Amino acid sequence: MASHIVLTSHPRNRSAQHQPIDWGAPDARSRGPLIASLSQPAQRNVIGTHSGAYSLYRALAVAAGNLQASHRPDLSNTTPAAVIGPHPQWHDPHRIVSLDPWGHRVTEDFGHLIAAGLDIRPTIAVTRAHINMPELLGAIAAGRLIPDGDLLTANGDVKVTKAAIDPVWYLP
User: Fold this and answer.
1) Non-local CB neighbours of 19 within 8 Å, separated by 6+ positions
2) What is the C-alpha separation between 63 and 69, in angstroms, rounded?
3) Which of 102, 139, 142, 164 is the most buried (most CB within 10 A)?
4) pLDDT for 95-141, tens place per residue?
5) 110: left (phi over 0), alpha (psi -120 to 50) or beta
6) Whole-Å CA distances, 147 to 128, 130, 155, 165
7) For residue 42, pLDDT beyond 90
8) The whole model's pTM is what?
9) Can you list the positions of beta strands (E) in the chain?
């Protein structure tokens, strides 16, 4: 039995099997995948865990016996709902990075590696939604807002694009 508990999410020794990362690369495939797998430590090339803040809930589900520790999510139908980027600053090797700009495209950019067994997961989820705000109906009725059908609909819905982002850091 260990005399202490190690509270780290990354192995002490880097594996020869890990995928290299080139932070200055012009696209995701050239940069390489970011792998934070707990179930495949030999594949890890970053610290942290997949699912960021939700990793606690995953750990609780595993501890309660409601989820297999080796569970891999089904990434079908996870294509982003909106096109985002690319932008030149995404591949500047001298900038601090706080998110993976291609994190919403892992199935598009690394589907072949996922199919080969690498535990690569999205770090950004992009969705579209309609938000209904009743107070906008009053503004529309009073003529203060005019629905354009693109962002604001006649029934007061606002069309939005949402992104849930797990932090991913690179400090040059």
Assistant:
1) 32, 33, 35, 43, 45, 113, 118
2) 9
3) 102
4) 888 888 899 999 999 999 999 999 999 999 999 999 998 899 999 99
5) alpha
6) 18, 14, 9, 30
7) no
8) 0.76
9) 124-132, 157-165
